[in-house]
Amino acid sequence: MSDTTPAPAEEATPTAPTEAPKDAPAQDTDWKAEARKWESRAKENSDAATKLAEIEDANKTEMQRATERAEAAERERDATKAEAERLRVFAKHSIPEEYQDLVLGTGEQLEANAERIASLIQPTIPGPVIQTEGTQPNTSAGPSDWLRDQFKK
């Protein structure tokens, strides 16, 4: 079984005030004067710190706006580069506009996908088929040649 006896509460011992030496009252007056002097300096510094904070906030806002504009310009530049790369790949592989949405990716992946799509949409027929290849042409006169034959005589 567990022992559930409460632990004795710690008693706070009040600290005894130390006795001040006999020259303590003179030091109190000096400390008060010093405290007033530092308080006035702190107020002056507070005003200057407030003005500085306002200026920094204004500059920070301008810097943030400039940073945002620079980031937006970089995003636009990257998008333009990516679009130019896509168009170059489309032209290289002669991919028609209706199939361009099928080509996805960037860089090497874009190139590989474009090659695959191009191989699927290009005709695989080797060329025109000539059925009479290797035979002699027919020299028999056709029905339109009878008139020519009449004038030769």
From TrEMBL:
Q: Where is the composition biased (Basic and acidic residues)?
A: 29-46, 53-81
Which organism does this sequence originate in? Pseudoclavibacter terrae
Specify residue ranges for compositional bias: Low complexity. Answer: 1-19
Please report the name of this protein according to its UniProt entry: DUF4355 domain-containing protein
Q: Where is the signal peptide?
A: none
Chain positions covered by the region annotation Disordered? 1-81, 126-153
Residue spans of biased composition, Polar residues class: 132-142
